[in-house]
Records
---
Amino acid sequence: MQIPDGYAQEIPPVGNRPRQYHVFDADSIAAIDAALAAQRPLLLRGEPGIGKSQLARAAALVLRRVYVQQVVDARTESSDLLWSYDAVARLAEAQLQGALKVAPKGPGRSLRRRLAVGAYVTPGPLWWAFDWQSASAQAQAVGAAEPVPPDAGDAQRRSDPERRCDPSNGCVVLIDEIDKAESDVPNGLLEALGAGQFRPLGSERDVVATGVAPLVIITTNEERALPDAFLRRCMVHHMRLPSVKHAPDALKRLLMQRAKAHFVAPDEVAGEVLLERAADLLIADRRAAEQARRMPLPGQAEYLDLVRAVLRLTNEDAAAQESVLNRIADFALKKHPDAIAEVTSSDVQ
């Protein structure tokens, strides 16, 4: 990626998601470059809220690629990465046609065709990544929508062929929180990527990887161990904040740098005093949580939430902002019951 260390990528608003900014560091840039060169998945490790998922969307914008994501949960199966099959809808249609005792009318639309398995299969993220044109045709056939481009909220960029995200440039696939799934999900992902093809349920043709190889980014919050074979085939990037014990000043600088990149709107410009004071509070609470071994530690996400809340509650001078900051800081930073108990105990004393 031809961007410098510290580059701030704007992520346009889409739906209910507000405008965001992602600040690339040198390690993240190098990790993405390595994954692209090796054509291997990039596994992102790191504490919640550090920006793992956001990195994938930002990378798609920098690379001008389309973006597809799959949020994994305990019910996710390996086939969900390839396609999803709506058996319930097919059964309902069969029951309806049986009750009516008539076949759907229209040229070429026999009951058998209407109830074909393939008519209830929706493309999954790897289908889009392997062959966007075939996935688009299947989605249109079953009435499903195409993935929203990562720059959909930027009309000016979308109108510029030299800047917009386009399938011809390749695809960024985010497999989010893969540690929530059983081991067959990461293993199935590797199998599909290694083969470069798969056959969707109900189809007589394989989906074959064509064009630019996808950049597959995977995140984990370490809820369960990942298979060794899976780890060996991934590039792995450990996203870390500077140590609160050994490098608190570096942590403060990083937090303030990230906040300055995020809050650039005219009504959300954060001053140095607010950013520094909020960073001091975050560092103090993070240190206390680390010493007490309370997980998860308050981190970057909590810091940005705290600053955002202050800016939206008051646009007044630094003194007013600090007053609001002190009043609401505990709600953003002290999320463990033991932390609240310590505050209550100190208030009583």
Note: The chain is about 45% helix and 15% strand.
---
Amino acid sequence: MIAYLSGTIKYKGANYLTILTNGVGYKVSLPTDMHAKFKLNDPISTYIYTHVKDDAIDLYGFTSPLEIAFFELLISVSGIGPKTALAIFSTGKLPVIKDAVVRGNVEFFTSVPRLGRKNAQKIIIELRSKLGSLEDLDLSPESNESKEIVGALKSFGFERDEAKDALKFIKDVEGSTSDKIRQALRYLGKK
């Protein structure tokens, strides 16, 4: 299974890139906003979802493992394949898609090519219940930094709840992750 690729763009198709890695070119389909960012010979690193069918192996590229997790949720809905799920990612970024599910925004999904009202409703109904199992999946842009801070605070012996409380305190603090960890430690030391 291919999970991550790093290389150079050798060819740019309508909705895919050929990524050259160690002399091998991989055809990787991408959401349109990600696809538009790159030119020939640009370096690229992308997380990969590998879809295996009887007659083909297709690769789909994303900017984060969180996007892949949500992509997998989308294709778990009956009637939604990888191409339709990729079209959904091309219509909106991950927080927008999640918000459309939570709010029951059928119009967002029907604006996706090849996706009718019935399948849009099915996505909303099926994913609302599955999103409950992903409560810890923070889809905000700061989620990786937040996880790193919580992990660091836990390694200092603080409980997860204390670390989350410190995150709220330092949410407006500017600076590097280490600066934020120091601020969080000061905050927790005063409690």
Note: Residues 65-134 form a domain with the DNA polymerase; domain 1 fold (CATH 1.10.150.20).
---
Amino acid sequence: MGWSTASPNLPTRSDRRAAMRPELLQIGAFPPQVQAEIDADFHCHSLDALANAPALADAIVGIITRSNQRVPAEVVERLPGLRIISTFGVGYDQIPLELAARRGIVVTNTPDVLNAAVAELCVGMLLSLLRDLPRADRFVREGLWRQAPFPLAVSLAGKRVGIVGLGRIGKEIARRLEPFGVTLAYHGRTDQRLAWRHEPDLLALAADSDILIVSAPGGNGTARMIDARVLAALGPQGYLVNVARGSLVDEAALIEALQGKTIAGAALDVYDNEPAIDERLFALENVLLTPHIGSATHETRHAMAQLTLDNLRTFFREGRALTPVVFE
């Protein structure tokens, strides 16, 4: 007769590991491969689970979320043991920062790893907008080339480009645009003493630009900064590109400017109300629309997921985060 040294009443190694997993509140969905990594190291609960079992609030020590998902202040207030909020993305305007700072809650994001992807998309969208590439594609597919040549478009070379917000992503965009032979200037709170001209007046930057690129962070301080006055200053030959946050642009004013041709066109990757965006945009031929895909490459999303998880792992293992947000 064989004897087993294992007892059904003793916890296995996997049982002990599961018991040691920090309890997280998860806000937003992640791809299956990323979710598997999350579940391997953490015990996650949804907002619905928290609502149905209020006692969970005492166990939650962290939140994992996506930068396009709102982290409600009232939820944070219900979590007495919350120590860290780790967001998948560079933006943190959906997180109640003042509350987090007051409570001593660490907030992390995923800077740098998505800079190149967002900059690539920005340049690609700008070229597509100026050269009218979506319409050129349809022109060929629909057999119109046999009937007439495609209308002339607009060159990027020689244009004056103003960048609103010259942070990490803004600098990547500027560096990628330089080889096209453009003149660069930027608007921000401080003169960074760079090769590109700093313009402290946003209206002046718009008036002096053929192309205005928005790459500033979201939040109350930048909400609707691209308003009707800025669009009027940009003028009927000017183009707007937004790869930052939809909240930075007064969308109603932008639609009015596009409809009235008081600006030449726009390329938008972000919107006020995603994904249920204003349907008036669909009817406009002078706007290029993409579904918030600035960081949407396999390589970039993998790097973002690893940094999101590594922030949590390092925090719970060593008491520090790799990329904490600095509260101002």
Note: Residues 1-18 have pLDDT under 50 and may be disordered.
